From TrEMBL:
Gene3D superfamilies assigned: HUPs
Chain ranges passing through the membrane: none
Top-level taxon: Archaea
Pfam family, one: Usp
Family note: Belongs to the universal stress protein A family.
InterPro entries reported in the protein's UniProt record: Rossmann-like_a/b/a_fold (IPR014729), Universal_stress_UspA (IPR006015), UspA (IPR006016)
Domain UspA: 9-139, 157-279
Protein name in UniProt: Nucleotide-binding universal stress protein, UspA family
Lineage of producing organism: Archaea, Methanobacteriati, Methanobacteriota, Stenosarchaea group, Halobacteria
Length: 284
């Protein structure tokens, strides 16, 4: 029996910037979303709460709705069902709220990524979403320092770097391959060991995961590294140049909410490509 791609709902958060324009108008990116099962897109833009009521704020809200209507036309022509939301408040809180309300399967946000002048800097909304997201989050990298930016990787999921610490939430992130595989051709699996406390079976566990992807005809390789986890994951990213790095937002750490976990936060902040971050299951 042929596998049926699930019907998915995505939140597409936009500030109507040039970076958002680049991502939304890229046909290949939209085709990738279609291939992994996205059928409905909720376009969301947030008017910051410090923009006060009155004529200026109302004009801003109207302009944002007009911008969303233009994006809606692009996405509807690509075959998606689209709803638009112009809301007021703190961006990451409102985006998470809508994601929970519509029971979205993923949230997508564009980010210009690391600043050439400031290490570990991403946009505040992307950073806050990475720390608090209630659904898998795709941080879509866009070029910096240009008036007409282009996205870094058009084929969002063609080549994936999957980072694991073999925790429960890392396994949950691996499960995302069940739908990403429809757009994935190559995967690299990486685990970073502490030189002071190496395990005996890490390579065997990586081989087991690779076998699962091989069954789906994904060309898979493994990397077992030693040292600082974030540094080594990012080093592998530089070497294999994946379109997207896939990882869980929390692994062995018991820290909650704004303490994302140092490895995940470092990768989201410093990666040169896209990052797909999978959080723990929603609580009731």
């Amino acid at each position: 029996m042929a596998y049926v791609v699930p019907s998915m709902r995505a939140i597409y958060a936009t500030d109507l910037s040039a970076a958002s324009e680049a991502a939304i108008h890229n046909e290949t990116c939209l085709e990738c979303l279609d291939r992994v099962g996205v059928e409905t897109i909720h376009l969301v833009t947030v008017v910051p709460s410090n923009v006060h009521a009155g004529m200026p704020g109302m004009d801003l809200q109207q302009r944002r709705q007009q911008g969303l209507d233009r994006y809606r036309a692009v996405m509807e022509s690509a075959g998606f069902e689209v709803e638009t939301h112009v809301v007021r408040g703190t961006p990451h809180r409102r985006i998470n709220g809508i994601a929970g309300t519509v029971r979205a399967d993923m949230t997508i946000i564009g980010s210009r990524g690391q600043s050439p002048l400031e290490n570990r800097v991403i946009g505040s909304t992307a950073r806050n979403l990475a720390r608090t997201t209630v659904v898998p989050l795709l941080v879509n990298r866009v070029e910096r320092a240009t008036d007409e930016p282009e996205i870094r990787h058009e084929h969002l999921f063609q080549r994936i770097l999957y980072a694991t610490d073999f925790s429960e939430n890392a396994e949950r992130a691996f499960d995302a391959f069940s739908y990403l595989r429809h757009a994935t051709e190559e995967a690299t699996l990486v685990h970073v060991e502490s030189p002071k406390d190496p395990s005996d079976d890490a390579e065997a566990q990586l081989e087991t995961l690779a076998g699962r992807l091989d069954d789906w005809d994904i060309d898979t390789s493994i990397e077992l590294r030693y040292g600082d986890a974030a540094d080594e994951i990012l080093a592998v990213e530089d070497e294999v140049e994946p379109a997207t790095t896939l990882l869980g937002s929390r692994g062995r750490s018991r820290l909650r909410r704004l303490m994302l976990g140092s490895v995940s936060e470092e990768v989201v902040a410093r990666a040169s490509g896209n990052v797909y971050l999978v959080p723990p299951p929603r609580t009731a």
